[in-house]
């Protein structure tokens, strides 16, 4: 009888240990699934501080002034909360004068929102010349709702419930050890949708493997390695803006993913565009 109870206790204890180990292993695996693609995209050298430059909300007839909270605010919240999970010790601050270009590049920079109220983003895109961009520097109101290729040909237009957004990771124009991140859309709801997309581990994992494949392919073909990535998204915003109501956004779809190299005169171009800013 004693032997029977002893065997039962041993089996129950073993089952509890296996259960606990399974739970711990599952959580560790989930953590790895989150952190590996997230830290691949969101790269910050040890001790680096992050500076966020976000567009300030202004009245725009196409946005409806009753739209509260603005999509840029929601985008900032989505990115900061995600980064706190992935980089718990990461310090971040906010650039308090987004209508003037940033000149202090001692921190990693995340630019959120378009060029009308985010001059740093406008100067960066003008200097970087990515595969698709709104080219706000050439628009009289610095508020183009059309994504164009490098030749200026319209490719995607934000109209009605259909919108477009882009996510860019590139090098710091002055300190190439740091990265710059740009998240923006035709309207603020699209900016929010892009921020949601780039904080989902499954999307980052997809992007990581696509870029790894491209890097291997470039190596085999003896092409120079790329240092910049752009993802362009198409988005449907299904509900009209309402007071205190979050936008109802259908799942963003990837329109294109491009790996490219920043121009050789990237830093000089950025400085030139900063000098041209009124």
Structure description:
This protein is an alpha/beta fold and 278 residues long. The protein has six helices and nine strands, in the order H-E-H-E-E-H-E-E-E-E-H-H-E-E-H. The strands form two sheets. A seven-stranded mixed sheet has the order 2-1-3-7-6-8-9, covered by helices on one side. Strands 4-5 form a two-stranded antiparallel ribbon. Helix 1 (2-41) packs across helix 5 (201-220), helix 2 (71-86) packs parallel to helix 4 (188-197) and helix 3 (119-128) packs across helix 6. The longest helix is centred in the first third of the chain and has 40 residues, at 2-41. The chain starts with a helix and ends with a helix.
Provide a brief overview of the structure.
This protein is α/β, with parallel strands linked by helices.
